[in-house]
Amino acid sequence: MKLTTPVEIEKDFPHISHRDNVLVLGSCFSDNIGEKLHTSGFQTEINPFGTLYNPVSIARAIYEIEEKKKYTEDNLFYYQGLWQSDMHHGSFSDSDKETVLNHINNRISKAHNTWVNTNVILLTFGSAFVYYNKTGEVVSNCHKRPESEFNRQRLTVEGIISIYEPLLNSLIEQNRELNIIMTVSPIRHLRDGLHQNQLSKSTLLLAIDKLKSLFPHNIYYFPAYEIMMDELRDYRFYADDLMHPSTMAIEYLWEKFTTCSFENETQQLAEECQKIYKAINHRPLHADKGTHKEFLKQIVLKINRLKEKYPYLEFKTE
């Protein structure tokens, strides 16, 4: 008895191993998958600009990482007591200008330093709607400024292609083995209305399909949106806001992703790393007890043993 509509994933989906360097850019779904990769021991750079929703801002982020852009005061604006950037998520904002600039430039520098070794890029498009500021630039975040300050438009398929075709040509020319995994966020933007949201998602899907046809050996599509809409077609798989996937849904999507992209050894190693992270994040009732100190020593021992065998694994400093 079938109780769901299975979503097929392309058979030649690329395998990812712990030797790979992964750059993750895009919407909240990128944060979810990126964090899963990180806690699975992968060398992962996750959204160095914070969450990005539209394809234009995602493309700009790649260019700025590649050139190691240096942000200055001229790239910031002051609003409601905070220094902020049109290109960055609100988590970068602060009342102190230098704090903002240091945070922004440190994240770009870190991403740039790993750029030369990046061989897997995961891009998640969230919305085809963009906001142009008064100078005609697309902003990645409006930071709750009045809508009258922006011109809101929906990108066209052709417009997205015109941005990404030269960008991807350049990236693939630098690395013929580069794998670019593209996906559309399953998170619905209900403020646009259900019909407009569907038009937005359709625009993104058509654009990715066209890019796949232009770069068939380097671009792959992971159907997160379709899995959420068909296999998980029930509100119990959504968070309380009825827009974001629930924890269970994220786990399901992660399982689907690993099934098509991890070989057995990679899967086993990922599970071992996840156990270590779970142990690290455990908060005991009595942290000062000798038993807990011994517990921590055993975790460090496990990490060191894994690092000896797999020196490319990535663990948090703590």
- Helix segment count? 9
User: What are the low-pLDDT stretches, counting only 5+ consecutive residues below 50?
Assistant: none
Question: Which percent band covers the strand fraction?
Answer: 5-15%
Strand arrangement in the largest pleated sheet: 2-1-5-9-10
**Biggest sheet, open or closed, and with what strands and sense?**
5 strands, parallel
What is the CA-CA span between the terminal residues? 48 Å
Helix fraction by DSSP (H/I, runs of at least 4): 40-55%
- The overall strand count is 10
Describe this structure in words.
The protein contains nine helices and ten strands. It has helices at residues 28-39, 55-67, 97-115, 157-174, 194-214, 224-231, 247-261, 264-280, 290-309; strands at 21-26, 43-46, 76-79, 82-85, 120-125, 129-132, 138-139, 151-154, 179-184, 219-221. The strands form three sheets. The chain has a five-stranded parallel sheet with strand order 2-1-5-9-10, sandwiched between helices. The protein has a three-stranded antiparallel sheet with strand order 7-6-8, with no helix packed on it. Strands 3-4 form a two-stranded antiparallel ribbon. The chain is globular, with a radius of gyration of 21 Å. The relative contact order is 0.15. The model has no long low-confidence stretch (mean pLDDT 92).
Relevant terms:
10 strands, 9 helices, about 45% helix, five-stranded parallel sheet, globular, about 325 residues, alpha/beta
